[in-house]
Amino acid sequence: MTMLKIFGDFHHSGAAQAQALLFQRRLGHALHFPNTDFVVGILNQGWCTASDMMACAPGWLNSMGGYPQMASRDAYFPMGLEEFMSTSWDVWLVTRIETQRMFQELRKLHPSGNRVKIIGLTGNDNTPFDWPNIPNLMTSDYATFRNSPADIHKIWYSQEIGQHYYSEPFTPINRCSLKVVNQFVNCFPSMRGPWYERYDMSNWRSQCPYCQADQNGAPMGRKIDPYGIWCGAKDRLPDHQFEEYGINCTHGCINETEMPKAYDSGAVTVHFKCYDGYGFSMLQSIVRGRPVIVPRGFHKFRTAGKYLIPNLTCFEADWNSASLAEVIQYVTGSEGRANMYATACWRAARGLFDWGLEAFRVSEFMEDLR
After folding, report:
1. Which of 23, 164, 217, 362 is the most exposed place for a label (fewest CB within 10 A)?
2. What H or E segment, with its residue span, contains residue 154?
3. Crossing angle of the two packed helices 335-352 and 280-287, in degrees rounded to 10
4. Could you tell me the CATH superfamily of domain 164-352?
5. Predicted confidence (pLDDT) per residue in 232-274, tens digit
């Protein structure tokens, strides 16, 4: 396939890394993101608000985990608005609905705007793009894929995140890691307030038996601080350590090359982030042979559901400290039991994940862009 020049709005570092691994490393395209100069120029035009547009700055990107280990910095690099306007583009990636107007306005002004292909690319819940202007959809979210128009050019694909831990050898659980429970909170500081116990969002809510809504259609659920749930769990698990590797600007994060070791440091990984349906940490942990603990039923209709096999790659728990502690105590009840589950999870991942196939499917999708 001919190398394409691709530009995408910068949603967040994890999404950018996934895109770089897929488009740049695997498919050989040139991928770029906006820098501060680009964002300032766009904001001056009034096409977006400051909260809608993020700048991909090398320093900040490094603080969020750095460039993907196997992606070239030359292709995966931010650019300014002037350089953007002088570059002949083949594809633009729209990862957030808030930037749709920006791309529409740029298409009117850019010399290659009339021939550039636009792809709606999302992993969020049931994202409704401006379909007449965005006729292509790449999504890792099944709700977005299913509820989008049938006549658009679309593909439901798997996240690339986790692929760079796949080749690492299996690390058995030892006496130290047996008593370590990892919690990888993949979010920014602004999302560290109360989360909601809600099992789905938007129009998809009506099709999920676990969802509830009030009389105005708004999602309901008790507010739970993401760390507050550990208070009761810690009381019930006095012999366990609780590691917290937060991927956020406040506490920094672990470099990509160190992440496999971080997952290997524990026996299980808890993923109670009820916001997205895929979860980078879930896929990464499973690839490393560490089962994940997830809210019961939450991922049944989500992308990650195809990777979450109870008692093999995941364990489900109710949303309370007692249930969480009970699951952890069972899995880590003995070194032998924990290793049996870890080994089975690691082997299952070798059959569940096939990034070569996913890249092939995406390459075929890219050949037929509208």
Report:
1. 217
2. strand 153-156
3. 110
4. Glycogen Phosphorylase B; (3.40.50.2000)
5. 777 788 888 877 654 333 334 566 667 788 889 999 988 766 5
